């Protein structure tokens, strides 16, 4: 799962070095528009529904946090 999430982010930012612990929001890799796009891709890829109240900067702060978010999201 971690590798696929990194791949999805790299599709948006091909020149960024993304690891599991890269600070995505603070570094500007992800902003509000790219988070919305990423959510759609994550929901499609992993068959989950990410709740609106789970869309926070903390939950998208790193790939590690995104993995936790997906694992805690309801399956569709």
The CATH level-2 architecture is identified as: Orthogonal Bundle
Strand order within the widest beta sheet: 1-2
Portion of residues in helices?
A: 40-55%
- If you consult CATH, what is the topology? Non-ribosomal Peptide Synthetase Peptidyl Carrier Protein, Chain A
Task: Based on Cα principal axes, name the global outline.
Answer: globular
Q: Give the C-level CATH assignment.
A: Mainly Alpha
What is the straight-line distance between the termini? 17 Å
Structural class: mainly alpha
Q: Determine the CATH superfamily.
A: ACP-like
Q: Count the beta strands.
A: 2
Strand content: 5-15%
How would a textbook summarize the main sheet? 2 strands, antiparallel
Low-confidence stretches: none
Note the total helix count. 3
In short:
By secondary structure, this protein is mostly helical.
How is this structure best described in words?
The protein has one domain: ACP-like (Non-ribosomal Peptide Synthetase Peptidyl Carrier Protein, Chain A, Orthogonal Bundle), CATH 1.10.1200. Helix 1 packs across helix 2. The chain has 76 residues and is mainly alpha-helical. The two termini are 17 Å apart. The longest helix has 15 residues, at 32-46. The radius of gyration is 11 Å and the shape is globular. The chain is built from 3 helices and 2 strands; from the N terminus they run ααβαβ. It has a two-stranded antiparallel sheet with strand order 1-2.
